[in-house]
Amino acid sequence: MNEQQLLLTLIWNDNPTLLAESGYDIAGIAIYRRNLLANAQRSLSITFPTIFKLLDSDISESLVQEFLTLCPPDQGDWAQWGETFADFIATHQIAHDYPYLPDCASLDWHFHCALQGPDQTLVNASLALLANTEPENISVIFNENLTLMQTMFPIDDIFQAHHHPEQSIREDAMRNAKIALSAKCKPRTVMLFRRQYQPKVTRLTDSDADFMYYLKAGKPLADALDAVGHCNDFSFEKWLLTAIEQNWILHLQDNA
Hints:
By secondary structure, this protein is of the alpha+beta class. The protein has helices spanning about 5-10, 15-20, 25-45, 50-55, 55-70, 85-90, 95, 100-115, 130, 155-165, 165-180, 205-215, 220-225, 235-245; strands spanning about 140, 145-150, 190-195, 200-205, 250-255. The strands form 2 sheets. The chain has a 3-stranded antiparallel beta sheet. A two-stranded antiparallel sheet has the order 1-5.
């Protein structure tokens, strides 16, 4: 075991014998551990703001310490740490009391990644494929910052209730979230996308969700259209205009 590995072992190991044999100062290890925990809590509070708003500081600090012990950062950039935080919460006792927390954490993580993601805009020339190529030969390639999440909880309302800049919308979202959580939860698809450098969170209709899941899975446009052909509320023309305006699509691809 090299010196760096030994130091990391000592930080997460309270064995007094190991510490005594290492030659490291107990007070120094304690200071390092406190600083590490403070940095971790600061980092996670930025990456997972919804979780830290939902939980009080005592609980969140305890969660951070447990997560830091199990999943210490493996690189120098704290902003890249936390990908497994949602999985950690899902296995934690707190998820039994608040079962929506893991999905809220996942949404926070995708929002964080989209915020740091690449700037991508539609390749307008690729839209010409719609006029001269059969739908069965067209694939829709989405912006890398777009994520679809299927959930049983009103995580979009919870997110908006804590982060939307307009108070009236926050209040409406909080009311909707409480109603949904008090009733029998129904599956919903929440989409996160990035438009004009800022990630957005919205809920999709069932037909839009089915259509986009087909496309995200690499199915041709024809298959996606067939999947929602029975849905009276779906309009491809309306969907396409919205997708272009909201920067969902990166380009269309000819698979012929």
